[in-house]
Structure prediction request, 103 residues.
Amino acid sequence: MKLVDQVKIAAQNNVIKFIMSTLKKNLFSGKGILNISLPVEIFNVDSNLQRFCEAMALAPDIIEKKACKQTDPVERFKHCVAFALSNSILYFDIDKPFNPILG
Prediction:
């Protein structure tokens, strides 16, 4: 397993431990389970605009250099679909923006 994956798994384990301990404290003190604050570690520091721009960075390579040079419409369509799929995969991230209004 890669080191990056191990770090992500460790961070997720820490978040789960934090949520479970907060849940336990809230239940034993008589508070509801809806009053759990989320730890700062789960938020992404990038805004949605920055994430979208990073995902669109592949547009010149795939659309302009590969798809536009194809004469066959089916091959051109394949490159456009490949770009759309890669764009959507790169744009989605597990972390949510730190400030959802600004993000």
About this structure: The CA atoms of residues 25 and 31 lie 8 Å apart. The chain has two domains: 1-38, 45-103. The beta strands are 43-44, 96-97.
